[in-house]
Amino acid sequence: MVDQMSGFIQVLTERPALVKQWPLHLKRNTPLDMDTVLAMPTKRASTKRFLQRIQCFLDPSFYDGLRTSRTIKKCALTAAEIQQAVEMGKFEPCPISDIGAQVQLPEGMHGVNVFTVPELKGRRRLITEPLLNRVIPKHHVPRVHYDTRLGRRQRLRYARYMLQIDFEAYYDAIPIAATLRNKFVFRARHDGRYYRLRTLPTGARWSVAVGQAVTWTIVDIDTPVTITTLIDNILVAAREGQEREFVLAVRTVVARIKAANLMTSPNRDELEAMSDEEILQLASANTVFLGEEYTWNGRERLIRNSVKTVAKLKLALQKTSHTIRSLASLISLIFFALHTTQMNPARAFKLLRAYRGIYRLTFRGYDWDDAVPYIDSSVARSLQEIGGALVQNPWWKISDERHPTTDEATYDAVAFTDASLEGWGAVLHLRDAGATEMWTYRQRWTEDLERQLGGDDGEAERVLEKLRQYQLRRRVRSGGRFEDPTCRRTASRRGTRHTRNHARHN
């Protein structure tokens, strides 16, 4: 895989003109039957309520009164590619009666940017990004909440059986009504004609909520086994002794998928035709889900990064020079891969500082694709050391579940920090054999505070203590969740040497 991806990357960097010749990745699929999904019974009433909430995005009246640019850029798809998309039900020509001979879009019609992005499989993915994104605020779109990666691993730790089912070209399988299609119009470069989308835009702000609502409804069945999802990815998992319930859950989910008229991988019809033993055998193999591979050691699941993640990391580490974008992507990839392991994340502290530094360059006039002007030798060394350890990719045990508490008496060390550029620094309380120490690590402005107080270090500490109490009260009032995104809390439980980082954000 590394060699194959390396070849595609070489084409991307050295011969970008050839990328335009890569095939457009389109799949034939069947349209979702939304009415059937709306009629499906669900175990939780909240699931059906969420599905009802997203129906407004499929209603043309929701977009009434919104204004976007009347002129739209021509898309770079070739005539053959547009024709292919038309034949596969993705696009259709705009009716002449809707536009006529106008160059600008009439009132009530909205543009959509249509472009492609290369994939490291030697193909291009079609992206459709509506101009309506700019006028529909984020708070109008229902928030989608998922398990954390730690939470998901805990649910899967003792799962003997794991079966993943993916929807094929999911957004392309969600049709939009003819009365809604004029909200997503683009113009072809080769003939200047106007076309419009027939399926859910892949880059719409609300598409994730729409897709997730459908998936949640399909899998919300009454079962004791674990079912976790992320948009078009479904994982059904069960422990030993739950074989009957597991097979029943798989068959029920597949039947509901088939009723909704969605295509899957593995093929829904093949899954439906399998015997119980074949389903259990398929679910006993190693499983890759959301970038993490799981294997069974006879007692519990072990975990490591997927082959694809490791291949990307190997290729990125081979680069001798970086743009701001590529270095930020590499550091992000390292932290994603690091989270899968039990390696000490403190090793990557220099990378966090480097990430902040290169991100700030974009506010100083640098473009994301400009070369990074300077990389400190310690940062370069950390990239190779941590990245080199990650590409070894051994199996790791899933760590025991932890339950941090706000009771300071259970910790040897408690640090209240605000480490942002304008933050006040940190207050560290240490307890050892009944004695208590307090250390303060100050930002420059807190040193100025001490000078303003006439050098009274005690007064400065009292001010910082008030700040600490203020942060503590906010945390208690919010049920243990920090409302200030710049606030961090680090603690070490009494009687152990393990440092725990517990940061919760809104």
From TrEMBL:
| Superkingdom of origin | Eukaryota
Regions of biased composition (Basic residues) lie at: 490-506
Gene3D superfamilies reported in the protein's UniProt record: 3.30.70.270, HIV Type 1 Reverse Transcriptase, subunit A, domain 1
State the residue spans of region: Disordered.
481-506
Q: What is this protein called?
A: Hypothetical_protein
Native organism is Leishmania braziliensis MHOM/BR/75/M2904
